[in-house]
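Problem: given the chain below (411 residues), write out its structure.
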Amino acid sequence: MIFSPPAKASFSWWSIVFNHFFKPKADFNKVLEQRLGAKAVWVGDSWVPMLAEGLKSLRLGNNKTKVVLPAYSCNEFVKAILLADLEPLFVDIVENGKFCLPSLNDLDPSPVLAVLAVNTSGVVGELDEILGWANQYGCYLVEDAGYTFLGNDAAGKPLGSWGHATIINMSEGKIIPCGGAAWVVRTDELAEKGIKQFVPLESTLLRTNTREAIHLAIYKFGSSRFVYHLYQCLRKWGLADWKAALTTEPSRVGENYATGDLEQHGNAIRLSETHRKQLENILPKPWNNIRQTCALQVMRNEFKLKQDRHLRMQWWRAQQLKGIHFLPIPPDAMPVKCPVLIDCRGFNDAQLKELAALGIKKQYPSTWPMYQLDAPFSRLFYEQAYTLPVHEGICLKDIEAYAAVLKNMMP
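Solution.
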């Protein structure tokens, strides 16, 4: 069995090193401000602590304690909310995977500090309507742009520019795969709060360029098909899982993905004490020139990346896969993966492992405690939401071969 990566590094490591030595120093923060119409930007190398610090800044001078988010979303959003000593308030998505205004109908808005508009796998919710709700009830809209950054809506407005604040996850496998996150604010009030909250980040010493170059090189080579296959073979043979030790994302070291590092306590979901202590000990560091150069290189390649990935999505759709439902993403999005629903109830373990080996991965597991919440559409997505690879490492021949495997498995 040949293992294929679900995502691939979308930058040239050699070009980054060349630009670092022979071109002016990069200023990713300034470029981000201009693109998203922001008042201020903070970028750090660990995305869960960065989101937690951003949420803490919203609470300065505010006694509200709840953050609304979809029940179907990454466990790391929940971790950040709990790390900020706030309370997650879960609502359901709708049948096509979107986070929409009707999800908020039955909420008491009085304790709501913020609505976290999670756009899982690039499926974008009703941002205008949710922003209107937030403005009406005096809370903040925090837009998640980890899977949508560098995309635009039908009118050409950049995704990531709706919220009072935006969090851009830039971990491995995302659009900007440098490790860490950007906290972006679009009001003077939140810029002032951010200045107070992010004082430790601004005063932290940068990592050396040599160390950062080594990390990026490891990720670049590790996301190639040959090295990824070798890594999976080592895991299969029971050898040590060294990926966590080499990751560019500190909050993922020692992560328990099976539980999401979350625990059910009665009707509440809590962060495990062991993982909380680990996260509390992570002090995000600002990006140095190597990481900024990498991010700007991806942005410069935006048009080609977007064009190539949409072409691969067209190839997938052209396979006419019965029983597989393609989820909607904006026409001018920057796809990371192609989100679909696959009913795998008739698949055996060997078939599921074969799909995973092809890079066709289940998005989130139903072992996370959010699966148990009273949210039927979210529960369905925990069971059936998968992603198909659209990265630059696969060609039409690969997609045709993968589609043939899927067709043989479907009842």
